[in-house]
Amino acid sequence: MQLTTAHLSESKRKWFIATLLLGTFTMSISQSSLSTAYPTFMKYFNLPASTISWLTTGFMLIMSVVMPLSPWLMNNFRFRPLYLTLLTLFVGGTIIIILAPNFPIMMFGRLLEGVSVGILFPSYQSIILEITAHAQRGGIMGTVGLVMGSALAVGPIISGIVLQFLDWQAIFFLFLIILVGVFIVALKTVPSPLKKKKTPFDFISVFMSLGIIGLLYFINELAHMSANNYVNWLILVVSVILLVLFVKRQLQLPEPLLRLDILKIPNFDLGVALTFLSYMSLITVTIIMPLYYQQVLKMSPLWSGLALVPAAALLSWLNRRSGLLADRIGFKPVIMSGFVLFIVGWGMLLLWASFANVWMTIICSMLIEAGNAFAMMPATTLGANSLNDDLIPHGSSIIATFRQVMGSAAIVLATVILGTRNFTGVFFTFLILETIALVLVFFIKDTQATSQHVKP
């Protein structure tokens, strides 16, 4: 039995969604906040930056490999105990980090956090979509985008403020306090719907999905590995073989771990592609522009970070508004306007790079992040609306996994092209990528609000 709007009053539905978003907001902050603390960790554990960076890299790797498990877990367990278990797992990992006497123990706690976040992110988006009427999905997913985007933006700021006055453990203690509060609130606000259709757990598919870890590891190492690094190339070959076998098995099994066959559904395939293409630009801006401010405009790290605030604020402000607009006029024109903004932003960066003007650059960054507000979550909702409700968990998992892998690929692509300050090469590359994305928008099947054409 599926959870639908009929099972919840409007008040209970809002409290349910608010609780999910608060937990997700806190976990998203934990995902982005550690980069500011790297120097502190390096000094505390007496380790190089390359080792400390595994607090983020390992987190992303474990997230990616558990994301495909989300549909099976949602089919076989009630959401309430699943959500409370994931909160408990994250809290447990956080406590381990706070008490960690050495880096390996801290890394273990961080991986537990990654498991929790990797399962929760596609799961909570699925449940929010399922309890929201089609005509309101654009707006609510805009709120989801606002929460996730603002969390990623404020994470480094919060950790920077905490580290100014307290030890690094205080960062995780803050997460701990908030999530314990979320757990207590969830006991009253998160419902426990009946279980859905039970499906067998396929250990072979899970083993094959480990190829995602190998692929992401190779992508992350590509920027600074030599051509004769045979171990990494072997990891790539084995990972690709495992993933090919994984895809083949999912298409053959009567009850697969992940319904990859839904990629054949019109609009869902485009929703996946447009989501990760927009995310690639967003993640690249957050990584490349601080380097541009520091290396080309000679700004301090503090001011290079503050220069990103206007774009992040605009992204947060537009996210829900773009979703509401998509509910009113349809997803195709909204998504199209998003990719036009991407193209204008990257194009202006390419043309104005030689002027080295900070205000021009901030305006370009704002245009790119505004494009993301009009493209990513509307594209995600477009894809979800093309699926029956029982397929939404699979769709959310596929979108989240693709977004994670392609986000990592975008960082490596930008880093490799950048080399020793080839910023114009980066700007041109992403201008081409978003131009291709704009062409794909024209293949979206309907021009009116998708909710008017898809049966709930």
UniProtKB/TrEMBL annotation:
Residues 16-449 form the Major facilitator superfamily (MFS) profile domain. It comes from the Bacteria. GO terms for molecular function: transmembrane transporter activity. It is a multi-pass membrane protein. PROSITE patterns: MFS, SUGAR_TRANSPORT_2. One of its GO terms (cellular component) is plasma membrane. It is found in: Cell membrane. The chain crosses the membrane at residues 51-70, 82-101, 107-127, 139-162, 168-187, 199-218, 230-247, 268-293, 299-318, 330-352, 358-377, 398-419, 425-444. It holds the Pfam family MFS_1. Keywords: Membrane, Transmembrane, Transmembrane helix, Transport. InterPro entries: MFS, MFS_dom, MFS_trans_sf, Sugar_transporter_CS. This is MFS family major facilitator transporter, multidrug cation symporter. It comes from Liquorilactobacillus satsumensis DSM 16230 = JCM 12392.
